[in-house]
Amino acid sequence: MIDLHCHILPGFDDGAARLADSLNMGKQADADGIDLICATPHIREDHPMRIRDLAGAVEQLNDEFAQADLAVRVAVGGELAETMAGSLIEDELEQISLGGGGRWLLIEPAPGPLSRTLLDTVRWLGRVGFRSLIAHPERHFHAGAPDLLAHMVEEGALVQVTAADLTHRGNITLELARRGLVHMIGTDAHSARVGRPVRLSEAFESLVGIDALAQHFDWITHEAPRAIVKGEELEPPFGWSQAA
User: Fold this and answer.
1) What pLDDT is stored for residue 244 in this prediction?
2) What letter would DSSP give residue 140?
3) Cα radius of gyration rounded to whole Å, the chain
4) Contact 225, 158 (CB under 8 A)
5) What pLDDT, on the 0 to 100 scale, is given for residue 178?
6) Residue 243 confidence (pLDDT)
7) Is residue 159 within 8 Å of 147, Cβ to Cβ?
8) Sequential DSSP letters for 210-243
């Protein structure tokens, strides 16, 4: 399994503060069968911009994981704030692309309800050669959010929800899944000590009972995440529905 959304780099943002916590997050991933984690530190105004340090920090953490006999490995990435997208040059966007594939960017919606400004960001990124993976829309939900997400998908975006919310049967996440508006699951883990764990398996199992997604289980769990970290083109094999 691949976790496309995890704040595992020590000292980069509000995720793991120290190496010991990163190692414990790696142990959680190993226990769950996760073999690759995209490190996605926040790229936004309230955190230091350390894009140039990202590749080196990932390499160093992989060395630490190897020394600790952990099987999981880490790849580059970033959680790009919607409000910051237009401030980065193309080279910086490539450096924070998921897996370093140069194509897919994890986009954090602006605070508050999902808005058309995010749709504008998806369109702009598409024009400059990038595709968007929308992070945790369940936290920005409102009555019109599914239609907005559907328009983003039509513009080439995909949607990622949080594993812990799906595991605990969050009503909004389940509604999006039933409408065919869930393409990826990420842990969005920040620490092994508190909050969301680095665990995907239970959330994936929740998809089996959702008719709109059950037959596409392998695409969601394996095929699509692998394509994203390789920077490949990707189209969902299922559509969306207006009714949950």
Assistant:
1) 64
2) G
3) 17
4) no
5) 93
6) 66
7) no
8) -HHHHTTHHIIIIIHHHHHHTT-----SS---S-
Using CA atoms, how far residue 116 sits from 87, 142, 244, in Å, is 19, 13, 22
The domain ranges of the chain are 2-229
Using CA atoms, how far apart are residues 3 and 106, in angstroms rounded to an integer? 12
State how far the Cα of 186 lies from the Cα of 61, in Å rounded to an integer: 20
pLDDT at position 30 is 98
Closest of 241, 240, 206, 239 to residue 221, by C-alpha? 206
Strands (E), 142-191: 158-162, 184-186
pTM of the model: 0.96
CA–CA separation, 153 vs 145, rounded Å? Answer: 12
What is the rounded CA–CA span in Å between residue 152 and residue 147?
Answer: 9
Q: Which residues of the chain fall below pLDDT 50?
A: none
Could you tell me the sign of the dihedral formed by the alpha carbons of 236, 237, 243, 244, in that order? negative
Assigned token pair, 200: 């995907």
CATH superfamily ID and name for 2-229: Metal-dependent hydrolases (3.20.20.140)
